[in-house]
Amino acid sequence: MSGEAIKNCVANSSPERGGGPTAKPLVEGQGTRSPASVSTPCPSTGFAGPPPRSGEELGVRSTWTRAEIADLFDLPFTELVFRAAEVHRANHPVNEVQLSTLLSIKTGGCPEDCGYCNQSASAETDLKATKLMDVRAVLQSAAQAKDNGSSRFCMGAAWRNPKDRDMPAIVEMVKGVRAMGMETCMTLGMLTPGQAQRLGEAGLDYYNHNIDTSPENYGNVITTRTFQDRLDTLDNVREAGINVCCGGIVGMGETRADRVGFVHALATLPHHPESVPVNALVPVKGTVLGDMLADTPLAKIDEIEFVRTVAVARITMPLSMVRLSAGRESMSESTQALCFMAGANSIFTGDRLLTTANAGDDADAALFAKLGLRPMQAEAPMRMAEAAE
Hints:
Helix content: 25-40%
Order of helices and strands: HHHEHEHEHEHEEHEHHEHEEEHEH
Structural class: alpha/beta
C-alpha cells in the first residue's frame, strides 16, 4: 500500500463530522457546548459547532494547579478518557488526524548532553554527524511527503543553536516548503530574538522547542542548558509571531508527579502551545538513559499511563494539537486507538523520526482504514481562535 493510500484509505467512511453532546462542564472552568450547537458541521470550518470563538470564550485557562492535574491523572481510566474525548469533540474535527513528516536536516554532533538523544556528541553510538542538507534536497523530501499525504513538514537540526551563517539556507527551506502549500515547522535548538524574527519573516508556521519533562526532573535529563533557557526561546518565538510547538518525553524513568509537573508547566504558560508533542522514550544503546534503563521495567512506559498523559494534556489544553510522536512504532494498534480516543489528533508519518524508527506510511494507512480515521483538512482550532480574537 503506497503513501497515497493514507489519503484515500477511508474514502467510503461517513463524511459527517461533529461532536457528541456535553451535558455539563468537564472540569471546573472548562468550556462546553450544548448538544444543539454541535449537531451540524460548520461549512466554513469543516467541523461541528458555530464559527470559531476566542480561547477565552472557549474556557481555555492557564490557571491549572498541580493538584487539579494530579486529580485528573487519578481518575478511573475510562472516566478520564471519556472526559478527554468530550473536550476533543467540542473543539476539534472528529475522526480526523493531521499527518506530518519530520526530516533531519542536520544530524549528530550536538554539544548538548540530553540523556535521551543519540545525536548528542557525548552519546556512544555509531551515528555519524552530517552537515546541513542542501536546500534542494530538503525541498525534494518535502514534495515527496506531500505526495504521501502529509500537510505539515517539520525540519530538525542537531544544534545547540543555529549559527547566523546557516540562517539564509534555513530561510530558503521555510519559504520553499510554504510555497508547496504545506505547514512548516522547525526545531534548531535555542534561538536569539533576531533569529526568531528572521524565521517569522520567512513565514515559519511553528517552532518546536520541547521542555522535555517537569522542571524538577529536568536536571536529571540535561545539564548543558536550563529549563529557563527553554522558556526563553519559547518567549522569543512568541515575540516573532511564530506558533509554538512544545511538549516532552515520558518513559525516562520519571514519576507520576513528574508527568503532572510536565503537563502543568505547559498548561500554565500564558499562551498554551498550539502543538503539544507527547513522545514515548525510544531507549538507544549508548545514550545515558538508554543504558541506564536497559533491561529494567522502566525501559518502556506503561501504555495505560501513556494514554493517561495524552488525555490529561487534551483536557488541560483543549485547543492545542496533541501529537503522537516518537515511540509510536512500538505501540500496539489498540494503544494508538486509545490515544486518538483520548484526544491525540496528529502523528508523524514515514519510516523515520530524525534518527529513530517510525511506524511507516503503509502501517499508518492500514491503521487509519481499520479505525475509520481521515487525514485532517481543516486548520488547527487554536489558530482559528486566535484569528477570532
